[in-house]
Amino acid sequence: MFSKLISATLAGFLVSSVHAAPAAHSSATTNTTLSAMLPLSSDTSFSYEILRDLGLARYFGADVGEVLQAAGNVTAADMEGFSDTFANLANHVYSQAQAINSSEFPVSARDFYFRAATYFRSADFYLHGNASDARIMAYFANQTDAFDKAISLLDIPGQRINLKAADGSFTIPCIYYQASGANATHPKPTVILGNGYDGAQEEMLHVSGFAALERGYNVLTYEGPGQPSVRRYQNLGFITEWEKVVTPIVDFLVSGARPEVDAARLGLFGYSMGGFLAVRAAAFEHRLAAVWAVDGLFDVFEPYYNAFKTTPLGTLWNYGEQTGNYTAFDNEMDAYLFDSGLADTETIWGIVQGIWSFNVQTPSEFLRKAKPMTLQNISHQVTTPVWIGAPSEDIFFPGQPQKVRDSLNPGLATFHELGAADGAQNHCHVGAMSLVNELIFDWFAGVIQ
C-alpha cells in the first residue's frame, strides 16, 4: 500500500524546530482514517493495518477472532510489539496447519496456511527501518512457505512463474491461477493483479484474486522492482518505467504458452501505489482491455511534498533542489522522525518504508526517486478504459483519484467515490472488498463483452 503521509504534527515541529520545546503530542494519534468505524487501535497506523488484515477474511486470508485477539495485545506506537504479536500468531496458526493431514483434509490445511502467510507478512510490516534486521528475510520466507503450501492445495494449484524484463535487468516473479473450466477450447479473460508500495503479490489473491476466479477469470499476480520479493532477492528499488514490468507479463499471456488465456481480454489491476503503476504501464502497453486503479494516484511525490512545502522543511527541500545539497533537509527530517518525539507511527513508517522500498539511504533520495513518478504528460497516451476508486476519507492521497480521472482522454474513466455508508471510505477500501469486487468485475464484464 501507499505510504502514510507526513502527519500534521510535522508543520508544528518544523515551525518551532527541533531545538524548541516540543508541543504536547501523543504518538498514539486520533484515528482519523477510521473516523466512523470502531477503532481497532488508538494508533492510526496500527488500526489501519489491523483492518487491512481483517478485510482479507472474506477471501480466506484471515480470521476475525484471532486478528482481534492480536489487536488487543498491541500497544500504540510499539512497532516491535506489533511485529512480535503477529509473529506469534503466525507461528501458532502455522503449527495448527502442520498438524492437519493435508492429504485427507486439504481445505482445512489450506485455510490455515493462507492465514499464517498473512500474519507473517504483518509481522514484517514495521521492520524496515533497519534494513539489516534478519527478520525481514525470515518472515518473508515463512510467508512464502506457508502460501506455497496453501496454493498447492487449491483445486487447481497455483503456479509460480519467473519472467524476464526485456533487457534482462531483472526477473518478474509471478503466480498464475487457472480458472475452472478454462482451456484452449474455452479461453477465459485474465486479470493481472499488482500490489503497491509495501504489499506482496500473495496478498492480492485475497484482495481480488479469489473474486476473479469465482467469476471464471484466470489470475496472474506479480511483483516488480521495489516490491517485497524483488527488493529482497534482487536488491532492486522501485522504478518509474513500470511498463518494463507489465509488458513482459502481457507478452507471456498472449504468447500461447497458456492456451486457456483469451489474449484479447486482459485486465490490469493496480492496488494502492499500484494505481499509479498500472495506469503508467497502460500509457505504453496497449494490449490491455481494461485497467483498475484502486485507488487512483496521479503523482507519487506530490502528496509528500504537499505535507511539508509550506513549512521550513519545504525551504530546505527547495534549497536542496537548487544546490544539489540535501543534507540540511535530511538532518531535519531525521530529527523530526527519531528525536522530536512528535512523529507518529504512520509518519515514521511511511518514510522508512520509502527508503527501504526505493533502495536508498536518505529521505531526500527516496523523494527524488519518487519525483518522476507522475502521470503528467503521460496519461493522454492511455487508450484503455480505466476504473478509478476514490475513498471518501483517504488521508494518504486525497484528491489524487480525481486528478487521474481528469487527466485521461474523454470517455475512458469510470470513477467511483466510495464512502462510510458502505464501510468503504478507507485507503484501498480495505474491509469492503466484496463491494469493490462486485463493482470492478461487473464493470469489467461490460467492457470485454
TrEMBL record:
Domain of life of the organism encoding this protein: Eukaryota
Gene3D superfamilies documented for this protein: acylaminoacyl peptidase, alpha/beta hydrolase
Keywords: Hydrolase, Signal
InterPro entries attached to this UniProt entry: AB_hydrolase_fold (IPR029058), FrsA-like (IPR010520), FrsA_esterase (IPR050261)
Pfam families: FrsA-like
Residues annotated as signal peptide: 1-20
Gene Ontology MF terms in the entry: hydrolase activity
Protein name from the UniProt record: Dihydropseudooxynicotine hydrolase
Organism the protein comes from: Ophiostoma piceae (strain UAMH 11346)
